[in-house]
Write a structure and sequence with these properties.
heterotrimer, A mainly alpha (400), B alpha/beta (312), C mainly alpha (249), A: 400 residues, mainly alpha, 2 domains, three-stranded antiparallel sheet, flat, C: 249 residues, MetI-like fold, 10 helices, 74% helix, MetI-like (chain C), transmembrane helix (chain C), MetI-like_sf (chain C)
Chain lengths: 400, 312, 249
Amino acid sequence: MRGAPERLTGEGVPIRFDKLGVVIAVIAAYAAFAAPFATFRANRIVPGQARSMLEALPAATGPLLLAIVVVAALVALFKTPLLLRLAASAAALAALALLIGVAGTFLTPTGNTFARISPASGFWILIFAFTLLLADVLTRLELSPWARVGVLVVASAAVALLLISGSWNDLSILKEYANRADSFWAEGSKHVTLALGSLLAAVIIGLPLGILCHRVERLRASVLNVLNIIQTIPSIALFGLLIAPLGWVATHVPAAAALGIRGIGTAPAFVALFLYSLLPVVANTVVGLAGVPRAANDAARGMGMTDRQRLFGVEFPLAFPVILTGIRIVLVQNIGLATIAALIGGGGFGVFVFQGVGQTAMDLVLLGAVPTVALAFAAAIILDAVIEMTATRRREASPA
Amino acid sequence: MIEIEGITKRYDATAVVDDVSMVIEPRTIAVIVGTSGSGKTTLLRMINRLVEPTAGVIKLDGADNRSLPGYELRRSIGYAIQGHGLFPHRTVAQNIATVPVLLGWDKARIKARVDELMTLYQLDPEAFGPRYPHELSGGQQQRVGVARALAAEPNVLLMDEPFGALDPIIRTKAQEDLLTIQKRFGTTIILVTHDMEEAVHMGDKIAVMDAGKLVQYAKPAEILAKPASAFVETLVGASERPFRLLSLGRVRDAVEKGTAEGEAIPGDASQRDALAELLWSGRPALPVRDADGKPLGRVTLDGLVKRSARPA
Amino acid sequence: MKAWLPALLRLALVVLLVAFLTNPGWFEPLLKPLTENNAPVIYNQGSLLTLTLLHLRIVLIATMAATIVAVALAILVTRPAGAEFLPLSRSLVNIGQTFPPVAVLALAVPAVGFGEKPTLIALFLYGLLPIFENALTGLTTLPANVMEAARGAGMTGWQRLVKVELPLSAPIILGGIRLSVVIGLATATIGSTVAAKTLGEVIIAGLLSNNLAFILQGGLIVAALAVLIYDGLSAVERYTARRMGRETA
């Protein structure tokens, strides 16, 4: 019997659940109905009191947010078109972002500068649930590199707009920021300088070292082994181990001291980050160069290219995407590791994290952690996009 | 006996296998030939239900192959694939014992069977049993792959381009080994290949597939002599046809009375080999002897040329 | 380089480490020049050996938990029933790796308070990622013809998982565990900033009291542990890879 008739399930369109949607709906339902939306504290270090979504928002907005969350969760729950899911997750995230600011203003007693309002577990879980939905949609849409950077720019612009408009100003994390606006930007620029500067130094030293390792096989294993061992050493330990030699240099070489090299501070942090960065750069350069097709190299040699011409004309361009992958690893890793520099007086966002831990002021921890994560995340997305673009361009150029 | 009745497999709108019916007699070798994408592998994989058909029935000795759970069905059918697919983390002996272990045979019986198969395939059980697949040569790996497929004494053996990854010399040897073992165990074999030479050499019957349809299913001589369509004709290869036809016959069947000078050819050699020898040595006739060296007569160039012509 | 040299160096490192942990007093003269104003040379607010063992215990517990959860999750998303989660889980791993361990550590404190708990949580969460990622790689890059053969031989889904997929992925999963342990050793060190009893305590105490000898001994012990464990796990991984017929690069 061929062409068996399609079996119909009941009348009309069958209802199908989305598996991830079920998870998201369960999480969202718990967060919206059972978990606190915001926390109220009389001052920055006393324990807080929980406020549910309806308690934390003025009259009509509470039910409105609840409705938006329920609708978005229902869109997630069933098998629905991707664009509808995109709209639902974006709308839910936007509503949450806007209204947490409203909750801040609403819950702060007028004229009280000590009270602290912070987002509570319910808010964070809702953000997590709908980010999950958004991430799933974006993954399934298989966006082009440009489109991904576009989404990042739009999201950053939206957050910047909320920050500038002052609608979050009554939230505790921004109150912490208001108290240290100057040092925030100073530590921020130190953080970026540390992460980018050490990356730059690693590229300047690492690329030639990688090329050398590629050409001289005897060198390869020992150089990579040493760099591997350095990567293994935990960051605090490495920072600590560098304090002694750099301190010695500072006391015995006046010129170095004049340059700002000391046992404690930015110098050991910079050197440690630089050392950590070397392995991915060197290893990926070696892997990239080794991956250059033999035929391409032979053809270049056959046409009479010198070693130098071959390196810059053939090997390097072909190995570029792989080298770029190494740079991506280093940058994301460095942005994270730079937080630890604060422990040895090297500055950076880690200053707020460790101060916050010391004072048990979680808002201060967040003031340091959130920008760090945001920076690392943005760096990862942008570099991933660049890598994909260079890799596809090369694939199109060489029919393989 | 394997009965394939109106089997169809559709992915979305396209039929990969389209209403194929054929019967494979017990203890014979059926070869499915076709270009890549003709649906030959899908047809094979529907027999042991690695692929579930969209429509149609496949019966093994009269029983619908859906009367057992898929995995139990597959334990009763041998399956050998291109590139052997040996488990790299298990020794040769453990690889061969895979299905018997799944079936819960006792240890002594498994060991006896593994040793028997390894000896049959000229692999010393003591030396090769404890080795890992990556320590073997390509030809040895392929033999272990077939031994594993035969381990649980299946009545039916499915083979998907089993010799595809082998070099020509090892491939010929592997084909001869398979023919010997098929005769010994009387296994029904269905073999998929894209190589017409292999099909003509191995098959009791050949099934030609094109774009999901079964174009012709007949004995090799008939496929060569009366191709059902232009496609079959191309696949057979017009310039190869007479030689393939000769390769089907034994020299003993082409013997004429009389004698000839020079070195003799055994009666079991193919007529194609005899023709090649005649052309190469520039002789008009060769003496033929049987296995004991007894003269049988002679084979002549003229006689073979007549035999290689299109049959009436 | 001679073949026995690395082995000899490792052995020497083990001997030195054990000697230092059991009899730190022997090394006092070596570290003495690094201190000023008669400050203590050897860490005196707890035994170095105890701290080392506590440090290792945290890493061990967290890594074991992370391994179980990460491998279970990787198995789930590579089964037909969980296939819908596969693309998302890949994205999540990518996103997760942009979270620095310090941030995870600090953010765990409000949820569970100070002490070992936030350290354990941070180690566990951060340890999940490399193991999950490697398990996913291992389970999705199995040789196609081996999987075909396993199915063709009549193995059930469970038998294929236990007898073929997991053993063949083992070397790659071990690689993930090794990365996870190394990250864990580092994160546990930072854990002492949230009052976990680990070797980080020695380094932090040194930083606070400007005592180079403390910093150096803490740093050296942690570094030696990390290098030795990394090395040992690499050896186990190479052995399994050879056993499974999967050559690692």
